[in-house]
Design goal:
Blueprint (H helix, E strand, L loop, with lengths): L10 E5 L6 H16 L5 E6 L4 E4 L16 E3 L6 E4 L3 E7 L9 H17 L6 E3 L2 E8 L4 E13 L2 E9 L19 E2 L11 H15 L4
């Protein structure tokens, strides 16, 4: 499903209701990123779910794939290490033109973190960044730890981004045990539903779009 465009829109929003194969998503991102770089396609944010799978970023340590036969493993050119994707997790692939956003990779990653933190705030969840860890984290004082609730992994080509972010809404958290998520051993993984919030994917989609549009200053 694609959201209709107004004349003033610069970003196309796509929402897929059925799980999307990773290879299909990658092919679309590659094509769209090239179109954006060539000035013939709109920027795009694609909200979707994947069937259960693991992805390996450019910094992935093979030792962190603790159960290599559980799900398919996809090598990917994005930054970061191992991540799990599957039903109940909202993936947002961001095909955005950093030529219009300052060509500053660090600033762009901070923007993605702010986007997630602002989205979580709409559900009264305090998301936090950590200087030594990628992603967004929530404190769990009841468990005496902090857990990861969202991941970030991007790739740039000709200053156009692809890959993106993932937010745990209601995935099977046990599936994260097949990897060391993002190479972090000392902390756990959580989701909005795990935190006791009866949030639907549609709720999250609305919050993601509203938060993005509130933060994005690109004309």
């Amino acid at each position: 499903m694609t959201t209709p465009q107004n004349a003033s829109d610069t970003v196309e929003w796509k929402i897929s209701d059925a799980p999307v194969a990773y290879s299909e998503a990658l092919a679309f991102m590659e094509q769209r990123a090239a179109g954006i770089a060539n000035g013939i396609a709109l920027e795009c944010i694609w909200l979707l779910e994947h069937p259960p799978l693991y992805t390996a970023g450019t910094s992935a340590n093979p030792a962190d794939l603790t159960d290599p036969h559980r799900f398919p493993v996809h090598e990917t050119g994005r930054g970061g290490q191992y991540t799990y994707h599957g039903p109940g997790q909202r993936v947002a692939y961001v095909m955005l033109d950093l030529n219009k956003r300052g060509r500053d990779v660090r600033k762009f990653v901070t923007f993605l973190e702010d986007w997630l933190i602002t989205t979580l705030d709409r559900f009264n969840v305090r998301g936090e960044r950590r200087a030594d860890r990628v992603g967004v984290w929530v404190q769990r004082p009841d468990l005496g730890r902090e857990d990861k609730i969202a991941a970030i992994g991007i790739r740039l080509r000709r200053w156009v981004s692809f890959h993106g972010i993932s937010l745990n809404v209601e995935p099977d958290l046990e599936h994260f045990s097949g990897i060391v998520p993002c190479g972090v051993h000392e902390h756990g993984v959580t989701s909005l539903v795990d935190l006791g919030l009866p949030v639907t994917m549609a709720d999250v989609d609305i919050a993601l779009r509203a938060s993005f549009e509130a933060l994005d200053s690109t004309p």
